[in-house]
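Quick one, tokens below. Sequence please?
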């Protein structure tokens, strides 16, 4: 019996709250604007955060957890080196052989903390199909490459020892190349012509999504459009920068540094060598992540010594770059959270102010319902129901706006956003809680009025 009476009270309060809200539609909408924008901001913020987390995890999978990346710095300065020392000893000291396979062997031999060393050579070229040339990147690698980059071979197999040592014309291609050149059929066992060399396809890697930010910030290529061949195959059948073709002046393929002086007197002109490095990238994987910084320091000192004290290489630790990105995005999310919190706080204050104004407007009504038997609890429940309904209504509109804003943001800026049910439920809960908390003061104010004085109120 008690439960039935209580349910009837709730129904009566709900219908009365709906009547009051619909009677003042514009005022109710303006009251709930803070809640609307606050909830929308919370949902959008969480969607951006989820998208950023997914992107960082995907990038982390590609760069590897314990990897150190070494990249060469090509000699591309065209000006005369006026600051060069005049004696030949200093000039000889500044000469560097560049990043090469001898460095790889030295690293593997002398640094015990290293697990795998994976060299790469990159050449922008083309693959020919039915007379048409399609641009590709030809990558010379070892069989260890796929382990350091967490790339799986979807079909076919990896290079074996015989293929690597004998420079056999075999390749592993990206998924997009297979789709483009062998539409609707498998590429395994077939041959493709890269530049002037025919290569047999022995494997196809799984398709990977590489975001623009990953390509720009971490130097990750679109792996789906690469052609991978054994390192020795690349050096023998395509290009080896250690073989100097033009000893006098070779700025494009990377010949030696030549100093020219007409009468062996006066300053000598330095001719840039271009990219004289044999390797374009070196990925070093260490055993433990806590050894990354120390190993990178040892690598830097070793390579500098091997390159005659010339710093013609760069060393980076991708996981640290990713952590920095993650930290930046976390700061961005915190700022958004603060903005959303301020909006919700303002929305709650707005609800409280309007409800207090409503109490003053309905003072006589409060006195009448108290005179005919309504208790203080009934009045409190009535006004709390109104404030919670206003807040819930604003929350629902805010959820719709937040979902819409997330899709628009992804469509217009390319920033990946991921909506989750938990973020929507959290926003709805917060909106309801705001209405409940900020409705308490007006409800108590209404309930505390004396029935006789309220009836006399004009």
């Amino acid at each position: 019996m008690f439960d039935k009476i209580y349910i009837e009270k709730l129904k009566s309060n709900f219908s009365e709250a709906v009547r009051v809200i619909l009677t003042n539609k514009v005022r109710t909408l303006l009251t709930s604007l803070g809640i609307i924008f606050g909830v929308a901001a919370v949902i959008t913020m969480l969607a951006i955060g989820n998208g950023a987390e997914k992107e960082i995890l995907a990038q982390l999978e590609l760069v590897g957890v314990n990897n150190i990346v070494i990249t060469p710095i090509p000699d591309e300065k065209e000006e005369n080196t006026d600051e060069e020392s005049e004696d030949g000893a200093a000039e000889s000291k500044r000469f560097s052989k560049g990043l090469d396979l001898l460095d790889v062997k030295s690293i593997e031999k002398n640094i015990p903390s290293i697990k795998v060393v994976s060299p790469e050579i990159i050449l922008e070229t083309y693959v020919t199909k039915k007379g048409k040339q399609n641009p590709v990147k030809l990558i010379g690698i070892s069989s260890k490459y796929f382990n350091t980059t967490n790339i799986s071979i979807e079909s076919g197999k990896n290079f074996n020892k015989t293929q690597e040592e004998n420079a056999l014309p075999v390749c592993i291609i990206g998924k997009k190349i297979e789709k483009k050149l062998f539409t609707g059929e498998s590429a395994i066992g077939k041959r493709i012509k890269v530049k002037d060399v025919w290569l047999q396809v022995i494997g196809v890697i799984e398709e990977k999504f590489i975001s623009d930010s990953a390509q720009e910030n971490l130097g990750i290529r679109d792996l789906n459009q690469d052609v991978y061949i054994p390192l020795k195959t690349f050096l023998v059948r395509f290009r080896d920068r250690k073989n100097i073709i033009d000893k006098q002046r070779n700025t494009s393929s990377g010949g030696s540094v030549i100093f020219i002086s007409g009468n062996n007197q006066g300053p000598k002109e330095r001719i840039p060598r271009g990219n004289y490095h044999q390797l374009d990238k070196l990925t070093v994987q260490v055993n433990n992540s806590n050894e990354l910084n120390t190993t990178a320091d040892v690598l830097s000192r070793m390579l500098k010594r091997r390159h005659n004290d010339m710093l013609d290489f760069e060393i980076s630790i991708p996981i640290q770059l990713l952590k920095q990105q993650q930290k930046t995005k976390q700061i961005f999310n915190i700022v958004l959270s603060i903005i959303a919190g301020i909006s919700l706080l303002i929305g709650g204050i707005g609800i409280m102010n309007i409800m207090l104004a409503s109490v003053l407007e309905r003072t006589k009504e409060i006195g009448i319902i108290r005179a005919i038997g309504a208790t203080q609890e009934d009045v409190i429940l009535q006004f709390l129901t109104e404030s919670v309904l206003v807040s819930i209504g604003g929350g629902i509109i805010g959820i719709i706006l937040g979902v819409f804003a997330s899709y628009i943001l992804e469509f217009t800026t390319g920033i990946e956003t991921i909506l989750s049910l938990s973020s929507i439920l959290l926003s709805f809960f917060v909106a309801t809680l705001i209405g409940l908390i900020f409705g308490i003061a007006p409800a108590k104010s209404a309930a505390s009025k004396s029935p006789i004085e309220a009836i006399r109120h004009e």
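The longest strand covers residues 114-129. The mean pLDDT is 77.
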